[in-house]
Amino acid sequence: MGAVVVATATALMLSHQSSRSAETPAVGPSGAWIVGLAEIPRTTGPKERDRQVADLRQRVPGASLIDSDTWASLPPDAWVVRAPGEFADGFEALAYCGRLGSGECTARYLSHDEDDQDYVCEAAPAPDPDACRHPGDRTESSPR
Fold it and tell me: Which of 87, 89, 112, 128 could anchor a disulfide with 93, C-beta 3.0 to 4.6 Å?
């Protein structure tokens, strides 16, 4: 009986660890800007996906993995590795990205609205004001 309890506890821990890496962040109904550090195709195996996430967490502690299929504003069929925090607009998210020293991150508006897919703010060649501000943006200038 003891072996069954240990096996069950181990299975629950592994299940929790696997699902924990794919947590979906809580976001208000109006959405939020996030910093996307990477997009990993859903076809990537779990070990490779977790290796990539671990590598990014070395540079950005607190980075988390979200399933893009749970957010209509994100590209489908991918895992998105995001930096911690939410931002008032795309410009603020890009500023955070710049502080990370990475030119590869992208500011994305995270919402359940398909019409928000165009709100992708990128530093190069230059941020597009129409893509970096959403009508629902907060007015304060610091991340939540």
Answer: 87
Strands of 27-77, DSSP E: 32-41, 64-67
The residues facing 105 across adjacent strands are none
Q: Is the pTM of this model over 0.85?
A: no
The count of other CB atoms within 10 Å of the CB of residue 65 is 22
The kind and range of the H/E element at 107 are strand 106-110
d(CA 1, CA 33): 50
- CA dihedral over 69, 76, 28, 35, signed as positive or negative: positive
Give me 19's structure tokens: 């699902």
**CA nearest to 27, candidates 133, 127, 132, 111:** 111
